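Tutorial handout. Part one gives the primary structure; part two gives the three-dimensional structure as tokens.
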Amino acid sequence: MAKLKKLKPVFDWAEVVADEKDWTAAPPAALRNLLFQMCLIRRFERNLLELKKNNLIHGPVHTSIGQEAVAVGTMAALGRADGIGGTHRAHHQYLAKACSYHLAPAFDPVADEFPAALKQAMATLLAEIMGLDAGCCRGRGGSMHLCDPKIGVLGTNAIVGGGIPLAAGAAFAEKYRKSGNVVVSFFGDGATNQGAFHEALNLAGLWKLPVIYVLENNRYAVATSLAESSAAEELSVRAAGYGMTGRIVDGNDVLAVKAAIAGAAQSLRGGDAPPVFIDMKTYRDFHHAGDIPGSAFGYRSREEEQEWKERDPVETFRRGLLARGFLTTAQDTQLQHLVDGLVAEATGTCVDAGAIKPALLPVPSSIAEGLRGSGAEFANVCFSEPEAVSGPRKKMKYVEAIAAATGRWLEQDPSVFVLGEEVGHMTGGPYLATKGLAKRFPGRVLDTPISEAGFCGLAGGAAMNGLRPVVEIMFPDFALVAADQLFNQIGKLRHMYGGRNVDMPVVVRTRIAVGCGYGGQHSMDPTALFALFSGWRIVVPATAADYVGLFNTAMRCNDPVLIVEHHEQYNQVGEVPENLDYHIPFGKGRLMAPAPT
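Part two.
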């Protein structure tokens, strides 16, 4: 009879607990700064609820009241150049990142002058939540979609789990550039059941990206409890499946949060450590959105809410400061007056006599700005048809033109990389469209797991952060697996984030196999599908020479571009200029003469 040999998972898994040394290691002013930031966030969000009641905010308001320690402790351990990505519940993360960017670590709220730049950041955030043109995304993002790359807010996301692959892409860009910066990806417990979560974490673990995954575990995905949604009692064990370090932290203890993030960030800055997954256990005081407690809807009890209220992060930390003599009652009063004044001042920039200031409303004619780029990237480009390119020509197969054009961009632009399934194997993929490129450009032609959502999202995040990815989707049908990343993220984000915060230079190649015997799930034509969604440009090169010119234009473009190829074209031979650096303009069809019979 076969016997069972008991095995135990082997991975770095621990709980981070703060002790008295964490209190004494920091200057009292720095500790008061942490309290100040948590109080500022809470007062700011309570003000949002009042504005919502007065019909001054259109759309939902997802507050983080009760979760402030997660954001403040995290940002206190990061550098100014580190980036964060978040979810629909992210006001606290934006404000905490703005504070960490604009305030010195030893800023003393009861002694130092509050910087004007941070006042402006608060006003900008409030304007965005209120849908005003002065907001960080020109009012287009509202409460759930916040972006300010200057301070390190790479983008928050209303699709549950949708931003996690983008954060992996941002971390990929940091590792690619060897910057030493890290990226923090915030998400809730509900996101851990999304496919994008697993695909992104697998890529991050596989490539050892400098990313910290922070599970802001408030125990409920809207009204669905953790016990109802996950078979795992401790979600941090999922780190084991992706070669990551796992940590558990009391998310209501700002010093424990800070210690956990500091340790994770330090381990990642060298470039070869595995990512870190941190389960921060916390609680939101109110229901999913608004100011009504969850118990009013029956999915949690008043007793549970009271138990967590007694562990309130702001009050617990305040009591700790007072008990240790790091804060006096008079200083506490002074701090609260400062917080109230700052929130009132920010509100006054947007509201006058109980109404939104009309001058701040978006101009209706600007609604489409940023759907596509301005075209400034083509200012010095001379467009021409292949026939007009001077110099000698050579015979080339269509598939050879794909490899040649891609290789030319890898030669001339170090920000370009290629990824997809099998792009580096078999000397250049199963159809040789990347022939020889993996050998010529090691580390820049990347074979991926079969995870279209993961690697398409990673490409999007990398493009938002200065790289120019070329993505191969082996068959167009597989784009449906990555639909959220392609359409809700890559296609929409530039416009949604204000049309000025990010560009999205992603080139996606895919190969139609209609008539090649592959059957119904490998024979889709994606052109009409992509045309349904905003942001995308679509090109269909008919010849090898057309391919080179259109590929060059696509690679220079700051919009996402889909290049549609057909399998039966791959072995067609045509003349191509030996000088491959010509550009064919977008938006122009070409009437081809029929082939001779």
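Part three, for discussion. Residues 28-53 form the longest helix (26 residues). The chain has two domains: 32-358, 376-577.
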